[in-house]
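Exercise (ungraded).
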Amino acid sequence: MSVLAALRDWPSKEDDESCGQCAHFHADPAALEAALPGLAILSSAHASVRGEDGLCLRQDRITNGLRRCPDFAPTAR
Amino acid sequence: MTAAINSGASSAWREFWVKEDWWAIWIGLAIVIASCALFWNGLSLRWLAVLPPKWDEPAEIAADLTANWVRYAAQCLFWLGAFGLALRALGYKAREFVPAFLLLYVAAYLIFIVGQWKQSSAYNLEPPLIALFAGLVIANTVGLPRWLASGFRSELYVKTGIVLLGATVPFSLIALAGPTAILQASIVSIVTFGVIYWMALKLGLERPFAAILGVGGAVCGVSGAIAVAGAVGAKKEDTAVTITIVVLWAIVMIFALPLVSRLLLLPTGVAGAWIGTSEFADAAGIAAAQAYGGYAGNVAGITGNAEQALQAFTLVKVVGRDVWIGIWAVGLAILATTRWETQSAGSKPDAQEIWRRFPKFVLGFFFASALITVATASYDLATYNKVATPGLIAPVKDLRTWCFIFCFFSIGLTTRVRDLAVAGRRPVAAFTVGVAVNVVLGFVLSVYVFGSHWAALGQ
């Protein structure tokens, strides 16, 4: 993907099928600090720098809650 | 793991009470505004900003406690209310926070007493180092119940302290020294990132892993690593390993940088700039800078004053390095999306991420500085030193010191080495090479290139 195409395509807020709305995505600060030992020693899951990041349990990666991916699974409401 | 709590559509307003950066601003600015209001009405925040006096005989401490126990109790209640409100809003339980904080306050008082002993510098008993060491020993030997960690929130305490630090740094000083700080920090950040990233790739690590290691060493430690982990879609395991390496190196540097600076008798401003360049986290760097600042006037040959160490550190680390984390995250997100074909979880580059990831507590530092600068604009230097310093600035400074002691002891108490992820040789090697380059380059810039600037900071 070119830089220009990527810039054109960026999301600016969470939509209905963004990672933040996905069943695989965990953004609870307590859960994130439990999943990443040591995070709370010299930083925090409550810090602004974390933005909308969370943990994708399907890909086992830290990911931005504003992105989208083909593995989206709606949360049970 | 707890049930999934998805972030939902986070409005800009929501951030004001769900992020600790904003709570640090609310608490810090409330103190600064209260101090200004009292000062303008002929009063002072001094009554609340009590701390143990310098002492030679234990009887002096007993006498101080007898005379001022109501002030200590009021101050403890004040902190309990302020931090308790913040942590309740962040989702912590009051029944866990209250006993934890009471323990923290009593420990901080005892650490203060040791630090206020007139012979403490002769024995290297600097309060930040005592707090950290004592916390580390407790956490890794007898341990404390894990639920007490609700009160050991080192980042909230250090951010509040940095906002209060803003009140003691004139805005003109930020304007004058800021560009040098940014230049020095930028040189070191870019070189350090490049070295760690290049070494990590040479050693066969994946690009997202190399990127979070690089930013962890070059920009703002664990906070930088976690911010870029989301931007590039780093694996959870790699992020945990990066956190381990950064935390352990940061703790080594808390003790090593002041020790080497002391051996070389560096002026406090110079040492503060070096620590700001070569420490990896704000809390760790504040501990090192405050410890070194404590040598001023107590160790022969060390020139400058304690405030210079903290001010130089803050300018280089916070203004020079931390505030750029959003740009690093967006830049690396662009790389991840457009050039790194192998990873799939990187976020699309989004210019708004620069603001979303901006360490907002830095705004509180600037606001506090601006408030005090405006409040004292009509004073000449003599009046400022005679009236504003004891009545307005000193109480804020003493409350700041309490915040930092809470922070240092919390770092020690939450560092359980056995809980950290096991780091392999390759990421440790890549990071360590970066540390070596960072320390040497930071020293050369702080001592030789900009040495006269930092030695004369604020004078």
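Further reading is listed at the end of the chapter. For now, observe: Chain B touches chain A through 78 residues (CB under 8 Å). The two ends of chain B are 53 Å apart (CA to CA).
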